[in-house]
Each structure stands twice: as C-alpha cells, then as structure tokens.
Amino acid sequence: MIKTQGIILSEIRFKESSKILNVYTKKLGKISLMAQGAYKPKSHLLAATQPFANVEFQLRTGRNFYYISGADLINSFYSIRGDLERLAYGFYLLELLEKSTPDEEQNEKLFLLLEKGLGYLSGIDKDYLKFIVAYELKYISFIGYKPHLENCVVCNKKLEGKVKFSTILGGVLGFCCIYNDITAKNINNSVLSSMNKLLYSTFEELASLNINKNILNSIHDIIVDYILNCIERREFKSLSLVKTLIGP
Ligand SMILES: [Zn+2]
Known about the structure:
Mean pLDDT: 95
CATH architecture of the largest domain: Up-down Bundle
Strand content: 15-25%
Bound molecules: zinc ion
Helix content: 25-40%
Distance between the termini: 48 Å
Largest sheet: 5 strands, mixed, barrel
Number of helices: 6
CATH topology of the largest domain: de novo design (two linked rop proteins)
Shape: elongated
C-alpha cells in the first residue's frame, strides 16, 4: 500500500463505469490509475477523479495499473472552470506534464510547481498569459532545459546589440555567434529582460510586474517552440483551444 498525493491530469472511460486516470503523484511521478466504478452516479470517487483534482491517495499496485484503496479530495480547483480561457490554460498545465514526463519517475519539484500553479491560476481572473509564460519558463527549467539567457549561449560573451533566441541551442545567441543557428529568431531587449524577470519571479510577484501583451505573446511563442523541441512533440492541443477562444 502506497500513500501519496496526486493531481489528475486526464481521464479515459473504461468499460461501463470505470476510468483510467493519468495522475501526477508526489512520490511516484506520473502513473496510470484505474478508478473502478468512478462513473457510477453515487460513486464516492466522483469528485476525486476529475481532471485538476488534488487528492490524497492510498494506492495498491496491480499488473498494469495502480488501483485506488482510498481517496481524500484536498482541492478540486473547481473555480478554474468558471472561465473558458482560464480552463483552457489550466488544461495546458496538465497537458504539459502529461506530454513531457516519463512514467513513474519521481520529481517532487514538478508536483509542487503544478500544485502551486493551479492554486494561483484558480485565484486570478485576468493576465493569464503573464502567469502562463512565467510557469512555462520555470517548468522547462525544472525538467532540465533551463534556457540560457544571461550571455551568448555559444561563446558566453556579454550580449551587445542585436540578439536572437535559438531553439536548437537553448538560449540567446549574440551577434558574435549569429551564424551558429540561422533559424534563430530575433528578440529585442525588452523581450529578453522580461523573460529574465518572468523566470525568476515568484507567482505572487507577478501582480506587480507590468509587461505588455505583445512582449508576452512573443515570449510565449518562443518558449512554446522551445518546449516542443525539447520534448520532441509537435503541438499542445490545449493551446489550439486557447487560440480558438481568444483569436490569433
Ligand atoms: Zn557568441
């Protein structure tokens, strides 16, 4: 029997009344969990098996899945669902973990980041993108791909004049080494300094950080490309949903 906290990332219906859940747990990392009878109308598992739910689980191991022996709901983060754009961004945080982490590899920092991130997101009703970009920068750093933003990523010289961001090299390319990646994208100084601020600010500090929408959009585009490249994926479905909601 294993006791661990976990956050539901996704659910798939299984047979008549069961679900298979993808759960990010504090102790075991990402696991597949069989929730038997969770679709039955009177199931005590109903609330504890919805995406976003933060649950204290007692688990037993099976051949292909973990099974639930006990489940106490800590927080459903239900208020995330009160706004469609916030909900879509919430699903993005879940999808990010689902797509970029291997099964059963513990990373408590990632669990705590998700728990904190969902808590923060459920408490705000504007400036979602500022939070999302700060989250992305922290997330990618926590899985081992912290972008190199201080000096030139190739030669480590101080950055002067024109700079670019290289997805392939994982950081900022100075004019000195501009030909090391011809696909690198131009970024201006305000984009770069905002990136640094967002990477190192706590979520609580975000409220006092003023960054305009164009800069946020530029950073978001650069970082999503960078994340997809790092985790060898082509897209995030939840971000397509955001796009249809708020327009291009
Ligand atoms: Zn250089």
